[in-house]
């Protein structure tokens, strides 16, 4: 498979534990996501070494700050050779545009996406922070803002994927965490979907962490999901 749909979330406390998993994985089968925990513990050197091993790396640091700071952070991330990075759409239009402009127009630039509403958030959580309307309303509003600012796509729940593809077009990239194979534990995720259902709904890439990294046999868990997806795509 040349365009792996699965992004394995490397939510590990240090480089050694992350690399122990990565040693079992194949860049033809999955991409990798480095988030706040691992990046803070292991630093940019780890990101570069994953990229040098041939993995497409999604640097998930969810930048959210004043426009100039975010633009400079995006430039620094691009210099690490990542495939994709993200910012928070809640940072607003000026921040989103500054982030996008910082990456320039080269064909080799990383994809830039924005987090809409975290998949861990329920309607009750939204009310607490003053967001009115349904999760779908908030995601559509933030994704439209992101689209208008010229970004490549959003992170959203697969539950919102069909609506976003319909409204913002097929080429707007949808990256969906909150993926749970049937019977898997939900953990802190609220708005979840199975891998096959998420792709059918319009997800372009599936971010999967604990169902793979906490499995007794992580490689087998990845292969099982991969097979399930491939069977659905090529029946
Ligand atoms: O930006 C993300 O990747 C992200 C956004 C979001 O709304 N929800 C979400 O779960 N994530 C990330 O996706 C991964 C999900 O991991 P699991 O819940 O273990 O599959 C974690 O690394 C989260 O940081």
Fold and architecture overview:
The protein is of the alpha/beta class and 235 residues long. It has a single domain, classed as Alpha-Beta Barrel (TIM Barrel). The protein is 43% helix and 15% strand. The chain is built from eleven helices and eight strands. Strands 1-2-3-4-5-6-7-8 form an eight-stranded parallel β-barrel, surrounded by seven helices. Helix 4 (67-78) packs parallel to helix 5.
Describe, in short, the structure shown.
The chain has 235 residues and is an alpha/beta fold. It is built from eleven helices and eight strands.
Task: Pick out its properties.
235 residues, Orotidine 5'-phosphate decarboxylase, binds orotidine-5'-monophosphate, alpha/beta, TIM Barrel
Number of domains: 1
User: Within the largest sheet, what's the order of strands?
Assistant: 1-2-3-4-5-6-7-8
Bound molecules: orotidine-5'-monophosphate
The CATH class label is: Alpha Beta
Uncertain residue ranges: none
**Helix amount, in percent?**
40-55%
Describe the secondary-structure layout.
Elements: E1 6-9, H1 15-22, E2 31-34, H2 36-42, H3 44-52, E3 57-63, H4 67-78, E4 84-88, H5 93-102, E5 111-115, H6 123-128, H7 135-148, E6 153-155, H8 161-168, E7 173-176, H9 195-201, E8 205-208, H10 210-213, H11 218-233
Parallel strand pairs: 1-2, 1-8, 2-3, 3-4, 4-5, 5-6, 6-7, 7-8
């Amino acid at each position: 498979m040349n365009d792996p749909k699965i992004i394995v979330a490397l939510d590990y406390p240090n480089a050694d534990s992350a690399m122990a998993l990565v040693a079992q994985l194949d860049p033809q089968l999955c991409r990798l996501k480095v988030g706040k925990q691992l990046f803070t513990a292991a630093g940019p050197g780890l990101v570069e070494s994953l990229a040098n091993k041939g993995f497409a790396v999604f640097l998930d640091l969810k930048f959210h700050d004043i426009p100039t700071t975010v633009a400079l952070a995006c430039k620094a991330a691009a210099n690490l050779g990542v495939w994709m990075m993200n910012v928070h759409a809640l940072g607003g239009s000026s921040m989103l545009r500054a982030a996008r402009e910082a990456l320039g127009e080269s064909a080799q630039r990383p994809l830039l996406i924005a987090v809409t509403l975290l998949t861990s958030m329920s309607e009750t959580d939204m009310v607490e922070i003053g967001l009115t309307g349904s999760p779908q309303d908030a995601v559509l509003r933030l994704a439209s803002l992101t689209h208008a600012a010229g970004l490549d796509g959003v992170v959203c729940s697969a539950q919102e994927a069909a609506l976003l593809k319909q409204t913002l077009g097929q080429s707007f990239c949808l990256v969906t965490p909150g993926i749970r194979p049937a019977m898997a534990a939900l953990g802190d995720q609220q708005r979840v979907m199975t891998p096959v259902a998420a792709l059918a709904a319009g997800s372009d890439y599936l971010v999967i962490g604990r169902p793979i990294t906490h499995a007794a046999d992580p490689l087998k868990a990845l292969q099982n999901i991969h097979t399930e997806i491939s069977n659905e795509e090529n029946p």
